[in-house]
Amino acid sequence: PHAVFTPMMGKTAKEDGLRDIVDSWLNSFINISTLVTRLDTLEEDGDYLLDMQEDIAVKHIVSVINKKIDHSERKCEEFRQQFMAYSYLWVDDITQKFAEWKEANANTDPDILDKDPPLSAFDAEIVKYKSLEEEIRDLPTVKTIGWVKVDAKPIKSALSSWVTKWTYQFQQYLLEKVTNKVSDLVKFVAATDIELDTEVSDTDRSTMLAVMGYLRDVRVREAETDAMFDPLRQTVSLLSKHQVATPEEILRQLEEAPLAWSNLKKKAIVTKEKQAKNQSREADKLKKEAKEFEIRVEAFYATFRKEMPFEYLEDFNLAYDKIDSVHHGPNEIKLVETENYSAGGEMGSLKSISDDLMNLNNLQELFDLYKSDHREIAQCAKDSVQLKRVWDVIAMVQTIYIEWRKTRWDEIDVEMLQEENKKLQKEVKGCDKLVKNWPCFKGLEDAVKNMQTSLPLVEELHHPAMRERHWNQLMRACGMTFKMDDKFTFGGMLDLELHRFEDDVLEIVDRAQKELTIEKQLQKLADTWRVQNLSFPPDPDNADLFLLAVDETVMEALEDNSLQLQNLQSSKYVQGNADFLDKVQNWQKKLGSVDVVLSTWREVQGKWQNLQSIFIGSADIRVQLPEDSKRFDGVDAEWKDLMKEAVNETNAVIACNFEGRLERIEIMLANLEKCEKSLADYLETKRVAYPRFYFVASADLLDILSKGSNPQL
User: Fold this and answer.
1) Are 552 and 538 in contact (CB under 8 A)?
2) 10 Å Cβ neighbour count for 422?
3) Residue 375: enclosing H or E segment and its boundaries?
């Protein structure tokens, strides 16, 4: 909230600000010119509005007015800031600030029971606000700023009201403190005085305990009450100083209270002496009960450590049942045997034994005996709370994991699960350090840690390289079996306890990835040779006959893939996989056949082309070499049959791996080589007969001899 002007300074959205009002006045003055008809036009129509708006003198006057308004607005803002300096009076919460002031100024003297700030501090605050009230009263009520007259009475009145509220907070607190303390003491003295007159027989234990309770109450209040009378009188004096009247009844009671309190203390002493014998007897009895209770607490603590779920359980509901039965009861648990206690008694609950300790302490206080603390019970209570918190975390983790286990294998979002598991790890780390050595916490920590270890392995096992053989390897490594189908879930994988076989899992996945690479290489090789074809162009000399033509891409692929297969065969992933090894060896055999068949085939074709013109086209040669000519005729017929068949299958791998084709070509090659040898021998006889033929190449010599009967060729 702020102190504001009415109307507001400047312009507003509703156009009701002071600047808006002045602007409307100025516009109204100038718009009067619309009422005067122009005299300087033939039609004598129109007005002088535009002339007024453009007139230098008018603009000057408007500018001067605006400057004065700006100056007035600045001065008005300065005047407003005088009041805004007190804004804390209405902005701050009085109750909250008073509580903060009490805490900051609390009495730290350990010998003083009343921890409220000293009266001097209260006096200083009241005086401060009284002075502030005077200061506000002296502020101007009316302020004339230029042409603006500001009425400050409303804000001064509001400020005075707020200062009064702050003053009232301090004064009323002191008044209520005096009233409450005096009234409480008067009631206590009156009630206790009557009760101390109660007659107690030797056998009336309950009445005797009641009287002892009143004696205890007097004893407990004694120090505080003895020290409160002077401060209360000083408080009344301080309130009177600031014109705050204390009720007459309270003043009278404050005057009479010291004497009444003194008489009550004396009466308490007399009553205590009267009950000395009974008190001594009850005190002895109470000491015996305290000793027995100590033995019981020892057995309870041992039983508590045994029965509470400090061990990790897979079902958190069982843990909750145990915690509830031990903490709240009822239960049928028997106390365990200890050095001082024989087993057999009912354990009861932590709540019941805590109540028994409280009752024992109350009785010990009544008889002014040492109060047994029995830290074992406090430790049980503390452990019970911490154990419940640990199991709350365990329950949360187990519940989440149970839901995760239902996820189908193909629907697992490992990244999301890892993020969620990291949050669970933070929850686990946030547990109290007291529980870090408990087995249940260790089990929780291990469960979350194992999940964090397993999740990356699950992601690895999702790799598309995984095949049935790899799942079988995983089963053997983990010693469990499962069926990897569309019903397989995350829980089935967690049952394998992957965290125990991290290295094995990673090795299996690595092998799967390497084998996938091999699969792709073999598939690529198959795809490559599916399109590697032989071509069979027609023979230029015989259109009905085809020749073999091998493209360079076929030979390059043959060379590259042969080397690749050689490398694959040496791989441990191929050697360890019978299927891969069989495929690699099969391809090596096929490509080996392609290599041998093509090289032999091309060699046969070359020899056939060279010898055809000699043995078919030369009658002289046929006469001179009749048996070789007959042999060549057989090869020629076989070759032509082969080429007629070959055009029906152009794929290089299939064509070169036809059954019997290699043997067929090799026979032709052997016969052609015999023809060549016979021909070479024949040429040698000609060279002997005509030595000049030694200077002629064999091919040219054959050409000459083949044309011997037809020299014109």
Assistant:
1) no
2) 11
3) helix 375-405
The helix or strand, by DSSP H or E, that contains position 543, with its residue range, turns out to be strand 542-546
Confirm if 661 and 597 have CB atoms less than 8 A apart.
yes
Question: What are the two backbone dihedrals, phi and then psi, of residue 142, each rounded to the nearest 5 degrees?
Answer: -130, 140
C-alpha pair distances (Å), 101 with each of 88, 104, 199: 15, 5, 50
User: How many helices (H) and strands (E) are present in the chain, helices listed first?
Assistant: 27, 4
Per-residue pLDDT of 337-350, as tens digits, reads: 888 877 678 888 88
pLDDT at position 713, please? 46
Contact 280, 213 (CB under 8 A): no
Alpha carbon distance 527, 515 (integer Å): 18
Report which of 337, 249, 241, 253 is spatially closest to residue 298, judged by C-alpha positions: 337
Which residues are CB-contacts of 407 (< 8 A; sequence separation ≥ 6)? 489, 490
Task: Quote the pLDDT of residue 176.
Answer: 93
pLDDT for the residue numbered 42:
63
Task: Give the orientation angle of helix 153-195 with respect to helix 248-274, to 10 degrees.
Answer: 30
558: pLDDT strictly greater than 70: yes
At residue 79, φ and ψ (nearest 5 deg) are: -65, -40
| Residue 319 confidence class, pLDDT cut points 50, 70, 90 | very high
133 class by beta-carbon count within 10 Å (0-12 exposed, 13-18 middle, 19+ buried): middle
Q: Which helix (H) or strand (E) holds 151?
A: strand 148-151
**Straight-line distance from the first to the last Cα atom of the chain, in angstroms, rounded to the nearest whole number:** 126
Report which DSSP code applies to 533: B
Give yes or no for a contact between 557 and 532, defined as CB atoms under 8 angstroms apart. Answer: yes
- Residues 359-372: what's their mean pLDDT? 80
Residue 94 burial by CB count (10 A; 0-12/13-18/19+): exposed, middle or buried?
middle
State how far the Cα of 488 lies from the Cα of 410, in Å rounded to an integer.
9
Residue with tokens 């300096």: 85
Query: Both tokens of residue 713?
Result: 């060729």
Which are the contacts of 263, defined by CB distance < 8 A and separation ≥ 6? 193
Task: State the virtual CA torsion across 575, 581, 584, 586 in degrees, nearest 10.
Answer: 150
- In the numeric block, the tokens 């946030």 are attached to 430
User: With contact defined as beta carbons under 8 Å apart, do 198 and 210 qualify?
Assistant: yes
HEC profile of 44-63: CCCCCHHHHHHCHHHHHHHH
